[in-house]
Amino acid sequence: MKFLSVVQHTQSEWLGHIEDHLEGRGIRFGYHRPFTTGGGLPNSSTVGDGLILVGGGGWGTATEGRLLPSLGEEVRLTRACLMMGKPVLALGLGSQILAIAAEGGSVVKPLALAVGTARRIKDGAFAGRLPAEFPIVTYGRDHAAPPDYAQILAVDGDGLPAVFQVGANAFGFSAHPGLRPAMIEDLIMEFDEVPPNISDILPTLASLGPKIEDALVPIMTGVIELTGWMDT
Asked: In whole angstroms, what is the distance from residue 50 CA to residue 25 CA?
């Protein structure tokens, strides 16, 4: 049975609907919470069969004064996984960590809550399973700048990478594809700083829930196929 290490950066943001897809396939996972007292990260020998990096709310990787406290350690861990060929699934802030670990970088963007649509630009992405369009909800700051050799699979409404692939089995999503709308409300309460215009966007989140769940089905099918997490 496969086992995945999940790094969580806030109390509010976790795997969400992705948990259902892993549990339904008998894939085990465990959370690591470096932001808690006594919490820490796995090392490259105990990470298991893959690494998942979840989003980070108000933390970033490029904005001075808002850098994720465990950023350096996580970049080194992610780079080690890439070197060993271990699958990486990186969501939100995690996609920035993946980009940096792969010798790309990240760019400064202010904290924002945004709802939009991602558009696939590479045919055959995720073994042909990535939807042509799918909803994305972003809560965070800064943005991944994947290395030149990365494959950009989908872009957001601004033309920025929404999904990218590094090597054969490492994937970055600028937004959490398994987001539960309640996570956003929890993130707003967890951090002192909040994005502008949240009162205009929050009412639309509940209606997006079913669309997010529907799009996640082919996305996770493709991810699990390419990562080999169902292989024996």
From this structure: 15
- For tokens 């700083």, the residue is 193
Residue type, 96: Q
**Alpha helices for 85-194 (secondary structure H):** 93-101, 125-128, 181-190
98: its two tokens: 């993946």
Domains of the chain: which residue ranges?
3-227
Whether the pTM exceeds 0.85: the reply is yes
Query: To which H or E segment does residue 112 belong?
Result: strand 112-120
90 DSSP β-pair partners = 53, 172
Comparing C-alpha atoms, which of 31, 40, 35 is closest to residue 3?
Answer: 31
Q: Domain 3-227 belongs to what architecture? A: 3-Layer(aba) Sandwich (3.40)
Q: What percent of the chain has pLDDT over 70?
A: 100
Q: Quote the CA–CA distance of 66 and 69 in Å, as a whole number.
A: 9
Q: Answer yes or no: are the C-beta atoms of 115 and 201 closer than 8 Å.
A: yes
DSSP secondary structure, 69-87, as one string: TTHHHHHHHHHHHHHHT--
Tens digit of each residue's pLDDT (9 = 90 or more) over 172-203: 999 999 999 999 999 999 999 999 989 889 88
Task: Round to whole Å and give the CA distance between 221 and 85.
Answer: 20
Question: Is residue 3 a contact partner of residue 31, using CB atoms and an 8 Å limit?
Answer: no
Contact of 166 with 172, CB cutoff 8 Å: yes
> In angstroms, rounded to a whole number, what is the distance separating the alpha carbons of residues 82 and 217?
26
pLDDT at 191: 94
Query: Do the beta carbons of residue 165 and residue 121 sit within 8 Å?
Result: no
